């Protein structure tokens, strides 16, 4: 093979190694204890006496002042109300009028505790409300509400109401029975009276319960995600926030969410509305892994009402897409400017994998193998053209070297070299275009790195000896098979080629380096890459034969 081909692969390996740094394998540490709810306190910042729509309160203290405390009713014993729909069981508390448990029926808790997936940590509500009116902030998380429950064929409705000071606060949850709307519910509120602009501060949970076998990897994925109206979706890992560090995410925002590796809870203002801004604050560390933080959405109250949707469930791409408001970007694939390239590719890969899985009724393991083969077949013509250009380049190498030796003047040397290219019918850029077959699959490979980070469809999917294609091969069979197939591919490519010490060195080094890079990656990713290598063997063998015939004719 031409040394430029190996140079392209080597440069690609450097990029893959960078991805390995960005997505390191988790280190084994003991799971930390559940943090106290005091994590959620936020230090007040100077603000105008009367907030306006153009200047929402960036930060408001979550601890009520003595004056505010006098307005609050005495906390009574909490009363829990359960609402069961086909895929979810919601539990609400009258204290704070908030959901305190969301059990997802279709997914098993894979941690040692077992059972079904419950997003909530014990003792921590999944939502918290604080009312900002005038210069006052009222913490509704301590307020006991009275409940009126009603139901019909379409939905269960819980209406919580309380009088705080001289104002009535009403918060209503509508839980659809329709399975098409599974994992979502509508939240609306009414706060009559009051002068000036008012806001409802909605606190997201400070963490989500870890429900994966690899608890550390799940906790390392904890993050807040948000979608500005005129920019790409963003994500802030808990681990990137220092304890007490505050980050203001200016609005307007289409949604704000907290997510673990495979599950997410997000609030999405209804069409025409938005989140004015969001405040993210780092929580205290009890171990090397950051397991808690706080995230608050500032929602303006218009005409004495507010409303938003809540999605609390698995990160199933199709369900997230049906929520609208670009909520399928809750996992922003890629980083920096590459988001615009990798996210669409990753989204189409997921859509294609789901389509093949449903249409062909095959396991995702076989679907990944088929995807690897199809991509190689699609690149077959380009590989053929590139390798034939490489053969011609090898044929004219002696003439090019002779021209370089004969002419020392740069201008004459350039003219002589271009003459050689023209007589041979070879483009001077043939060496560069020969790299394309190696580089074109790389965006797909990079996108797959992100896809395997949080695609719940792969969670717990077995294949042959693999108990879960979303985690590493416990026996390291696939990484070793991938490296071996890559070595065989390079060895066949070197047959009947002119001696090239650099290419020979890469034939040994590159498979070893790729094996090390992918050793702890998802086994499904190794399966895909191995299928690609094996699918390329016949073409490589045919090209080696063609090269041998060309050398025989030339001699």
From the structure above, extract its key features.
single chain, 555 residues, alpha+beta, Beta-galactosidase, Chain A, domain 5, 2 domains, 14-stranded antiparallel sheet, four-stranded antiparallel sheet, 13 helices, 24% strand, elongated
Model description:
37% of the residues lie in helices and 24% in strands. The chain has 555 residues and is α+β, with helices and mostly antiparallel strands. The protein has two domains: 3-21 and 359-554, no CATH class; 127-332, Beta-galactosidase, Chain A, domain 5, CATH 2.70.98.90. Strands 5, 6, 7, 8, 9, 10, 11, 12, 13, 14, 15, 16, 17 and 18 form a 14-stranded antiparallel beta sheet that branches. Strands 1-2-3-4 form a four-stranded antiparallel beta sheet, with no helix packed on it. Helix 6 (364-406) packs across helix 7, helix 6 packs parallel to helix 13 and helix 11 (477-494) runs antiparallel to helix 12 (501-518). The longest helix has 43 residues, at 364-406.
């Amino acid at each position: 093979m031409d040394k430029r081909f190996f140079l392209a692969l080597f440069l690609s390996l450097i990029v893959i190694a960078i991805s390995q740094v960005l997505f390191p394998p988790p280190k084994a540490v003991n799971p930390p204890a559940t943090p106290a709810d005091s994590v959620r306190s936020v230090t007040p910042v100077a603000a105008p006496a009367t907030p306006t729509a153009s200047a929402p309160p960036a930060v408001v203290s979550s601890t009520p002042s003595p004056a505010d405390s006098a307005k609050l009713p005495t906390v009574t014993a909490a009363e829990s109300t359960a609402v069961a729909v086909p895929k979810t069981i919601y539990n609400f508390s009258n204290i704070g009028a908030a959901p305190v448990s969301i059990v997802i029926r279709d997914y098993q808790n894979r941690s040692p505790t077992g059972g079904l997936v419950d997003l909530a940590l014990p003792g921590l509500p999944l939502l918290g409300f604080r009312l900002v009116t005038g210069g006052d902030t009222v913490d509704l998380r301590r307020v006991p509400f009275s409940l009126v429950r009603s139901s019909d064929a379409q939905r269960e409705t819980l209406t919580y109401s309380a009088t705080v000071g001289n104002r009535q606060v009403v918060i209503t949850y509508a839980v659809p029975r329709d399975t098409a709307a599974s994992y979502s519910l509508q939240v609306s509120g009414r706060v009559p009276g009051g002068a000036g602009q008012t806001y409802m501060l909605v606190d997201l949970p400070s963490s989500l319960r870890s429900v994966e076998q690899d608890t550390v990897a799940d906790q390392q994925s904890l993050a807040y995600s948000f979608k500005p109206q005129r920019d790409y979706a963003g994500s802030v890992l808990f681990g990137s926030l220092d304890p007490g560090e505050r980050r203001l995410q200016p609005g307007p925002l289409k949604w704000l969410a907290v997510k673990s590796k495979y599950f997410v809870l997000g609030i999405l203002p209804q069409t025409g509305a938005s989140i004015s801004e969001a405040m993210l604050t780092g929580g205290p560390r009890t171990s090397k892994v950051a397991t808690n933080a706080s995230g608050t959405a500032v929602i303006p109250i218009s005409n004495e009402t507010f409303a938003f949707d809540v999605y609390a469930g698995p990160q199933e791409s199709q369900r997230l897409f049906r929520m609208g408001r670009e909520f399928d970007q809750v996992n922003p694939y890629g980083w920096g400017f590459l988001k615009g390239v990798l996210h669409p590719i990753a989204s189409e890969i997921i859509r294609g994998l789901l389509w093949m899985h449903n249409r062909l009724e095959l396991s995702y393991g076989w679907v990944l193998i088929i995807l690897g083969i199809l991509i190689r077949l699609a690149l077959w013509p380009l590989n053929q053209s590139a390798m034939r250009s490489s053969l011609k380049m090898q044929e004219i190498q002696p003439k090019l070297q002779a021209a370089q030796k004969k002419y020392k003047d740069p201008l004459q040397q350039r003219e002589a070299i271009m003459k050689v290219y023209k007589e041979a019918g070879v483009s001077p850029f043939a060496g560069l275009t020969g790299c394309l077959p190696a580089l074109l699959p790389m965006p797909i490979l990079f996108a797959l790195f992100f896809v395997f980070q949080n695609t719940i469809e792969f969670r717990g999917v077995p294949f042959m000896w693999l108990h879960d294609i979303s985690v590493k091969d416990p026996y390291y069979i696939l990484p070793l098979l991938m490296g071996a197939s890559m070595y065989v591919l390079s060895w066949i490519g070197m047959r009947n080629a002119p001696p090239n010490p650099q290419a020979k060195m890469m034939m040994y080094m590159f498979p070893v380096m790729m094996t090390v890079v992918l050793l702890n990656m998802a086994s499904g990713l190794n399966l895909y890459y191995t299928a690609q290598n094996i699918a390329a063997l016949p073409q490589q063998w045919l090209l080696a034969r063609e090269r041998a015939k060309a050398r025989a004719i030339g001699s």
